[in-house]
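Teaching soon. Invent one.


***
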Amino acid sequence: MKLCKFTDSDYQAVTEALENRSNMDLFTHDEVVRKILLDLKEKGDTALLEYTKRFDRYDLSVEQLRVTPDEIRLAYSSVKEQEIAALKEAAERIRRFHERQRQESWRYDEDGISLGQMVRSLATVGIYVPGGKASYPSSVLMNAIPAKVAGVDRVIMCSPFPDGETRPHVLVAADIAGVTEIYKVGGAQAVAAMAFGTETLPRVDKIVGPGNIFVALAKRQVFGIVDIDMIAGPSEILIVADHSANPAYVAADLLSQAEHDEEAVPILVTPEEALAREVMVELEKQKKSLSRQRIIEVSLGKECRLLVTESLEAAIDLANRLAPEHLELALEDPEYWVEKIQNAGAVFLGHFTPEAVGDYLAGPNHVLPTSGTARFSSPLGVYDFVKRTSVISYSQAALEKCGKNLNLLAEMEDLGAHANSVAMRIEGGKIKS
């Protein structure tokens, strides 16, 4: 970890590096991923099974690709009742929040013209759920429930089963969330299977969910064939804190991000140098008792920054520049300062709203823009699983009224057939002057 004050010579360099902090290399493995995509497109299930055997060490038959109802029942028997209850409570809170995001079709009429927009849900959505360093049932809920609330009929899920190992919490979460089909495949090959379809897996309209570099590259390469949610970078948190903050709380929340993986980005921005130094002490103290200590130490050493600004206003300005995935306002008056926030995936207000509540139970989606992309993008939501179609209707009188201007606009672009298509409908093919 590194403490930098506004007056330090390297402060500007550090903040500029943080602005350009996306360290995911989207080119190194391009050709490897391209080959996997082409193989899946050409060979379907055969290639899918070959790659699953090679990368996940799981030798499946076509009939074993899809998780069966018996396997779901077995998963429930492996999960504690209180864990099932917790998953159900989280699912209900996520559902209630996302129901407020529903969009309706609309129409309006004026002078013989009827205009509007139809809102329709996507037909089939694919969810990718990682299966590497940890099990993420919360990711299942956050990706599947908004799709179901949007009205998506078919929600399929792909998740690797390395060495054939099942993850019962993920399967139970998928059942609670309303996932319709689950397939035991992961990596770029799973993305390819969902994008192109195979004999067994359906082709989807959109792919959502996080993954490793190969998954990210595959999603980027199939975009345009299907839609995707985003190319997610490492998880990150930025905490803006003032004199009222508890250094133990601040350190705990920085550590909660650091434990995600070695590339996670924990940042503190504060005008209080004494607080920053107390947080450093707490980080060293608390990390010793945490189970993912090795990962935490790498993240703290590589990515953690404690930045001391000249004022609280400067701290807020820096937060807006960095556009973090998670932004905590550990401030005496967070309601005042939240009005100053322009760029953040999710904002957590006050001293008793740790980012962890957003990860699991609060209700808003935890699939958030990373690496500064909160400057132009938003959390995953119901609106990501619908499409909008414009509706246009003109009466003859309305067409006649605007015929002259239609003709002028078409002539500006030298598109005579456009003008003619209007003229054919107005008094024997002549537009009124």
